[in-house]
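Hi support team,

I submitted a single chain yesterday and got back a structure, but I'm not sure I'm reading the token output correctly. Could someone confirm the output below corresponds to the sequence I sent? I've pasted both exactly as they appear in my results page.

Thanks,
R.
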Amino acid sequence: MFANIMPGRTTAAAEGDVVVLLIGMRINHFRGVHHWLPVMLAMLRMLRELKADRSRGLLGHVLLSGSPRTYCVVQYWESKEKLYAYASAPDMFHRRAWALLNRKEKKSRQHVGLWHETYIVPEGGYESIYADMPAYGLAAATGSLPIEGRGRRAADRLAHRSGASGAK
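Hi R., thanks for writing in. Yes, this is the structure output for that exact sequence:
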């Protein structure tokens, strides 16, 4: 529960493009627990399934709550191809959960809302800094390194290219 704090400033060790999936749910009616609780449990089951098989491409995730009604999972993926492959794999839970939700959609729609956004961020389009933090977010997914490895300024970190030797 208590993560090790990395003293000083660090940055994510991500190389190349970063695939970020934001996926969430909103409880529209708390009394419709039989509609929204299965959705919440399905989210958690899919995360356990992906954690058990790292070859599927999920690098890491962060669970967030925006309010008592809204929940979001920030996911970091190896590639969009692996994300798409997981979403459509007949042997994975996502496909079964999505089919079940679509069958119940008319009744559930008023009780639970779902959303997702996918971002393919090219190298040079992201940067990060963590000060006296445990590994978090992109750094938890890809590893971290001292800030000097990518540059003290955000502009330097954004200019980093994994293939360029000595670039900052």
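A quick pointer for reading it: The first strand starts at residue 6 and ends at 12. Let us know if anything else looks off.

Best,
Support desk
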